[in-house]
Amino acid sequence: MSNLMERLSHRLAVPDIDGVAAAVKFAEGIVGMGLRTSKVGDLAYPLPKAYASKLPEYAPASLKLRKKYETSTLATAIGG
């Protein structure tokens, strides 16, 4: 790809930017600064949901309901 960019740059007399090389350098810079994806707002982890039908028996221990379809326990488990 670089020899194509060199030929086009020379033929058209304009500077060239290799998109792949630019993207790799951009990603290296982000990692080097220690930036990560935000975990607030739209990018936050999803809230736990109630398990329906036969699935409550497979729910994590923190979400297991005391009685079948008892939602107050679930609200307490998720802080609601």
Question: What is this structure, in a nutshell?
Answer:
Helices cover 41% and strands 0% of the residues.
| Poorly predicted sequence stretches spanning 5 or more consecutive residues | none
Report strand %: under 5%
SSE pattern:
HHH
Biggest sheet record: none
Question: What is the CA–CA distance across the termini?
Answer: 56 Å
The total of helices stands at 3
The residue-averaged pLDDT reads 76
Q: What does it look like?
A:
The longest helix is centred in the N-terminal third of the chain and has 15 residues, at 19-33. By secondary structure, the protein is mainly alpha-helical. The protein has three helices and no strands.
Mind sketching the topology for me?
Layout: H1 2-12, H2 19-33, H3 71-77
What tags apply to this protein structure?
single chain; 80 residues; mainly alpha; 3 helices; 0% strand
